[in-house]
Design goal:
Elements lengths: L8 E7 L5 E13 L3 E6 L3 E4 L4 E3 L4 E6 L4 E8 L2 E9 L3 E2 L4 E12 L5 E4 L1 H10 L4 H20 L6 H13 L3
Length: about 180
């Protein structure tokens, strides 16, 4: 499998299950590119929504995308600590143009104190019906929510404080 090389500046494209673009991030620096995961960093990057509206991210973020997990994790670095926004999504695909994934609506927000909240259950139910998510996708997504909650509770992967700190230092080295 191809993947972007460390130091490359890439775009991130999020889609919905029906194939429509959901959101695009203009610039993310690849901090690690491998078959298993892509770790990137961005700060004040332009984001374009499906309807054409744009906005700019407010703080540095370290993004973790996986080839085998049905979620991605965005660690947002703020003065009061690291907040995480976890998207329940398909594994990433790199096609040479952008890192791409399907956003499946459900999200988990994790606060600096480790507390978490599952978001957008209503949106998930509505889209599951409108876009006819297959039963197997529904099962995979629900299993991955449980896996993600376990990672949060065990401070595994990006939820270990030293992990985000490590990748943020690398991001700073790229001058972004």
């Amino acid at each position: 499998m191809e993947y972007p090389q460390t130091g490359a500046i890439i775009q991130i494209h999020s889609y919905k299950h029906d194939g429509h673009i959901h959101r695009a991030w203009k610039e993310t620096v690849v901090l690690k590119g491998s078959e298993e995961e892509i770790i990137g960093g961005n700060d004040r990057t332009l984001v374009t929504e499906a309807d054409g509206r744009t906005w700019v991210t407010r703080e540095p973020a370290i993004c973790f995308f996986y080839e085998k997990h049905w979620f991605n994790i965005i660690a947002m670095i703020r003065a009061e600590g690291v907040y995480y926004y976890c998207n329940i999504s398909s594994p990433y695909v790199w096609d040479g143009e952008a890192l791409k994934y399907i956003d499946y609506d459900l999200d988990i927000k994790v606060f600096p104190n480790g507390q978490y909240e599952i978001l957008d259950r209503d949106e998930y139910e509505r889209h599951r019906d409108e876009m006819n998510y297959p039963e197997i996708i529904d099962k995979i997504l629900k299993n991955n929510i449980q896996k993600l909650i376990q990672w949060i509770k065990e401070k595994k992967g990006p939820f270990a404080p030293e992990v985000v700190e490590h990748w943020y230092k690398k991001f700073i080295m790229y001058g972004k």
